[in-house]
Amino acid sequence: MNFIPLSQPDITQVEIDAVVDTLRSGRLSIGPRQSRFEELVAERVGLRHAVAVSSGTAGLHLVLLALGIGPGDEVITTPFSFIASANCILMVGAKPVFVDIDPRSLNMDPLLVEAAITPRTKAILGVEVFGNPTHMDRLAQIAGSHEIPLIEDSCEGLGGKHKGRAIGAFGRAGVFGFYPNKQITTGEGGMIVTNDDKLASLCRSYRNQGRSDAIAQGQTASSSAQDNRAGSWLAHERLGYNYRLSEINCALGIAQMERLDEMLAARRRVAGEYMRRLMGMGDLILPNIESNDDASWFVFVPRLCDLYGLVERDRIINGLRRHEIGAANYFPCIHLQPFYRERFGYGPGMFPIAESISHRTIALPFFNRMDVNQVELVALTLKVMLDREKLLKP
Ligand SMILES: *Cc1c(COP(=O)(O)O)cnc(C)c1O
Q1: Is residue 56 in contact with ligand 1, taking CB distance under 6 Å?
Q2: Which domains does the chain have, with CATH numbers?
Q3: Is position 198 annotated as part of the catalytic site?
Q4: What is the mean pLDDT of residues 154-175?
Q5: Cβ(152) – ligand 1 distance below 6 Å
Q6: CA distance 376 to 304
Q7: What is the average per-residue pLDDT within 31-56?
Q8: Which of 26, 95, 169, 252 is the most exposed place for a label (fewest CB within 10 A)?
Q9: pLDDT tier at 1 (50, 70, 90 boundaries)?
């Protein structure tokens, strides 16, 4: 039997040729492919700037730095996300303030966000969890009315829209991630998008060892004076990082961006096939997309209804894996990760909705080229596992 993976990148001959061409070109970093990749993403989101970086996490880190967020500041975010969306707040020395989620969209509850704002709140960091953009407009509105920036961790939502507006375009800045399980991949990589000229310029400097933006954009070591006069390659204006994305990665990114619509359509199709087959299972709650939203399907994550808990869920995930089906518990709550508990004294019961839901989610295999037979097999196997849980119930 063939293992059905949880996710799988969609790499064609086009991507392979693009990478080989780059290797032959002799230009492996800071070149035309970076600019082109940035242009394509900026265009897609409808913003002026895109800054390619080495990962989504690096992008989030730079946005917080460039906004001047640091020790003593609070940033409101969700406990139900990939850990990077809270870690980036710790990276700049600020404090993540978690609020509970709305059980329909799995995104932060806007009313709780509003209630959590204090004079120390310096930003709201919103996440389109699993590619679902619900409430992003409300978060932008709340941030605006308190004169603080909304940062969009849009790492799970490339290509989606909320009420007609692109995911990534709601905040002062948005960040995409290109790890191999995302909608498009560059192997590793990320992209900051923004309409803020100064923020973009700062991010470009931070990603390139604190060199001035002018040099970061155009020149390299071989094309500028080897000294530390302002504006030269060896002049570093601030503490920076090496968060650059190589030309090889960017070549992949260009090829993937050119196939984005085709890939999003394939993902929508797979999600539809799952929905049709799982709809009838009473003990399962399916992903909920609002009618005026155009979700970008990142993963497919139904959950058990609240008659079940962690023990049953984990048994089902293990059962699926025994049947050669990839499955995962997206996401364990961030506030319950060991170092968050230790550092901030978080414990179970503090964000009951996020906790209860995170005990019941089952991420199923989901990738562009998944065929209907594979979907059928996963759905049937899941049904067998659920029926067995029902028999075990008192
Ligand atoms: C993937 C992802 C990131 C970024 O991940 P990297 O591996 O650093 O590219 C950040 N936030 C969320 C919510 C993600 O899903």
Answers
A1: yes
A2: 13-257 (3.40.640.10), 261-392 (3.90.1150.10)
A3: no
A4: 97
A5: no
A6: 19
A7: 98
A8: 26
A9: low
